């Protein structure tokens, strides 16, 4: 299989990188979400962990996520250069070479896995290593350019951080941590496909087989609705299993209902500016939905700890 044109040239071009460019390679917005969801998994896990161990382990998880982001950008330089929303990234603009980004990602990957293994446990290290390999190799190198199900299968990498956080405390994988994983896993397709409906021309130009480009927008809207129908009750499961309290249950039920309504709007309004507006509203609210679920998980456990300490 031949590599996309321009990759070898990018790898050996001179570097004009500044520290901020390497920071951008880590995809800091994705890193912040990883820290947030991993911290939620850590906080709700039964048992106790030393605060230093917790902070170092969360740092390692964030660095591992950043490393996979750098490896992703290194491989996708050709795609990023074509798409409008990614054309300003460090590699397409020539500020960082793909070779430098690859070396940077590999070093950070090894460092992050070893750090969390030494600080916490080797199950957490194995989960982090799997996350990096799955995102950088399985998703980036294979799935993204091969199938419109790329986001569905590849979503496993983005869904693992709360499971990693949970394992830092318990050194185990349990039903509760699997539920947290599944919430993000099932949330990912409607979230990204709503964006893909708005950016389908960009993805088509880059040759990425996203659902709207391969199966059509009508099929994409059906898939969005079906995944959201599964997501809404799944989001309430942490309350049903006792992992979360009643406030979480109410928030999950209400926001899940809103997600369903917005997904229905996206499904039923299919043409014109109103269709774009429906997809945009779903995409925007999906971010808020996931944030609220994990924020309430953190807040409930924080309040419980404060009450236990008499604060």
Automatic annotation (TrEMBL):
<comment type="similarity">
    <text>Belongs to the UbiA prenyltransferase family. Protoheme IX farnesyltransferase subfamily.</text>
</comment>
<feature type="transmembrane region" description="Helical">
    <location>
        <begin position="96"/>
        <end position="116"/>
    </location>
</feature>
<keyword id="KW-1003">Cell membrane</keyword>
<comment type="pathway">
    <text>Porphyrin-containing compound metabolism; heme O biosynthesis; heme O from protoheme: step 1/1.</text>
</comment>
<dbReference type="GO" id="GO:0048034">
    <property type="term" value="P:heme O biosynthetic process"/>
</dbReference>
<keyword id="KW-0808">Transferase</keyword>
<feature type="transmembrane region" description="Helical">
    <location>
        <begin position="224"/>
        <end position="241"/>
    </location>
</feature>
<dbReference type="InterPro" id="IPR044878">
    <property type="entry name" value="UbiA_sf"/>
</dbReference>
<keyword id="KW-0350">Heme biosynthesis</keyword>
<dbReference type="GO" id="GO:0008495">
    <property type="term" value="F:protoheme IX farnesyltransferase activity"/>
</dbReference>
<dbReference type="InterPro" id="IPR006369">
    <property type="entry name" value="Protohaem_IX_farnesylTrfase"/>
</dbReference>
<dbReference type="InterPro" id="IPR000537">
    <property type="entry name" value="UbiA_prenyltransferase"/>
</dbReference>
<feature type="transmembrane region" description="Helical">
    <location>
        <begin position="175"/>
        <end position="198"/>
    </location>
</feature>
<protein>
    <recommendedName>
        <fullName>Protoheme IX farnesyltransferase</fullName>
        <ecNumber>2.5.1.141</ecNumber>
    </recommendedName>
</protein>
<feature type="transmembrane region" description="Helical">
    <location>
        <begin position="279"/>
        <end position="299"/>
    </location>
</feature>
<comment type="function">
    <text>Converts heme B (protoheme IX) to heme O by substitution of the vinyl group on carbon 2 of heme B porphyrin ring with a hydroxyethyl farnesyl side group.</text>
</comment>
<feature type="transmembrane region" description="Helical">
    <location>
        <begin position="55"/>
        <end position="75"/>
    </location>
</feature>
<feature type="transmembrane region" description="Helical">
    <location>
        <begin position="247"/>
        <end position="267"/>
    </location>
</feature>
<keyword id="KW-0472">Membrane</keyword>
<keyword id="KW-0812">Transmembrane</keyword>
<feature type="transmembrane region" description="Helical">
    <location>
        <begin position="122"/>
        <end position="143"/>
    </location>
</feature>
<keyword id="KW-1133">Transmembrane helix</keyword>
<dbReference type="GO" id="GO:0005886">
    <property type="term" value="C:plasma membrane"/>
</dbReference>
<dbReference type="Pfam" id="PF01040">
    <property type="entry name" value="UbiA"/>
</dbReference>
<feature type="transmembrane region" description="Helical">
    <location>
        <begin position="150"/>
        <end position="169"/>
    </location>
</feature>
<dbReference type="InterPro" id="IPR030470">
    <property type="entry name" value="UbiA_prenylTrfase_CS"/>
</dbReference>
<feature type="transmembrane region" description="Helical">
    <location>
        <begin position="30"/>
        <end position="49"/>
    </location>
</feature>
